[in-house]
């Protein structure tokens, strides 16, 4: 079983709607927080390389909601790395309520791409080698395909 990267969060009132449950868009925002903290911990050089020339772009995000979260629920996002192909990496998320009885609340997925800004638009860059080394323990599947530096 691959390692998981965990991001812990306590739901605040501002993240709930008038019915008292978490507004759906916050689940996607938490994916971004988890991804960025993962990069900060495992491959800070990748974050340092993001500048006016290089970009990390979310090209797809999804979430399947299984149950509701409410204010002050403690939720842990558990992230693994799915497929890595050419300039893209798919991240897999599970949202677990960890206050009270632990329960799976949602599953999500996000695909990110590494790009270079050019005068005519973006061009793909291979997933950085430092990140490829850092994600080995988090790979859901043992096979990676595509560009290698």
From TrEMBL:
CDD domains, A to Z: 4HBT
Q: Which InterPro entries match?
A: HotDog_dom_sf
Q: Which domain of life is it from?
A: Bacteria
Gene3D superfamilies hit by this protein: Hotdog Thioesterase (3.10.129.10)
> Per its UniProt record, what SUPFAM superfamilies does this chain match?
Thioesterase/thiol ester dehydrase-isomerase
Q: What is this protein called?
A: 4-hydroxybenzoyl-CoA thioesterase
Q: Which organism is it from?
A: Thermobifida cellulosilytica TB100
């Amino acid at each position: 079983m691959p390692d998981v990267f965990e991001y812990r969060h306590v739901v605040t009132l501002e993240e709930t709607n008038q019915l008292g449950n978490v507004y759906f868009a916050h689940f996607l925002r938490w994916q971004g927080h988890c991804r960025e903290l993962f990069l900060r911990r495992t491959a800070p050089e990748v974050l340092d390389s993001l500048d006016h020339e290089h970009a990390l772009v979310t090209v797809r995000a999804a979430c399947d909601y299984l149950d509701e979260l409410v204010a002050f629920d403690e939720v842990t996002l558990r992230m693994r790395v799915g497929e890595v192909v050419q300039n893209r990496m798919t991240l897999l998320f599970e949202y677990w309520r960890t206050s009270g009885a632990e329960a799976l609340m949602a599953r999500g997925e996000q695909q990110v791409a590494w790009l270079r800004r050019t005068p005519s638009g973006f061009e793909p860059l291979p997933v950085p080698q430092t990140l490829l080394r850092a994600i080995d323990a988090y790979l859901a599947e043992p096979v990676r395909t595509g560009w290698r530096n």
